[in-house]
Design brief:
Oligomer: single chain
Mean pLDDT: 85
Number of strands: 9
Low-confidence stretches: 154-171
Strand content: 15-25%
Shape: elongated
Largest sheet: 3 strands, antiparallel
Number of domains: 2
Length: about 170
């Protein structure tokens, strides 16, 4: 980054590659100014510009939308996570959601709460076998329901692996 306009120590404009931002000189000097388009989250995710913040309560508490977004990117792009959870090794996030602002807007429009339940972001309930997190393929679902889909998928894969086909139904 470089200073491209200096009006006073309280009013400067810095330029990053393809992006300009106003700040104070002390922020520039101490490295407190960052480019919101830098891909700092697993090499693909960036905060972007907009109303959605990473944290609440003056930085003391991570915003739940950010926590959800970060976890989604981790599942898809963190090598260590994928080594421990190989089911995510060929999953990805749509390019639109690499920008946290876009994901957070979708989150606000789609997240809901059920008393006593933890809600999960799911990519493959709406479209079986889906490998891409996107606005068209994701939904929020209570954790116990999500677990039923995961368990059923594991059982199905095990049955196919053993060369058998089982039908689950009522007794």
């Amino acid at each position: 980054m470089k200073i491209v306009e200096y009006n006073s120590s309280l009013d400067i404009t810095v330029q990053f590659e393809g992006y300009k931002r106003k700040c104070q000189y002390v922020q520039f000097k101490t490295g407190q100014v960052s480019n919101p388009y830098d891909k700092t989250v697993y090499g693909v995710g960036f905060i972007g510009e907009g109303k959605y913040k990473v944290s609440n309560n003056k930085g003391k508490e991570v915003n739940h939308a950010y926590h959800t977004w970060h976890g989604m990117l981790r599942r898809c792009y963190a090598e260590e996570y994928q080594r421990k959870n190989p089911a995510y090794s060929d999953c990805s996030v749509c390019e639109k959601w690499h920008n946290y602002q876009n994901f957070a807007k979708w989150y606000d429009e789609n997240y809901y709460k059920i008393d006593g339940q933890i809600m999960n972001l799911d990519k493959d309930i709406l479209i079986k076998g889906n490998r891409i997190y996107s606005p068209d393929t994701c939904c929020f679902v209570p954790s116990p329901i999500n677990s039923l889909f995961v368990k059923n998928n594991i059982i199905s894969k095990m049955c196919k692996w053993h060369g058998q086909r089982y039908t689950f139904g009522t007794i």
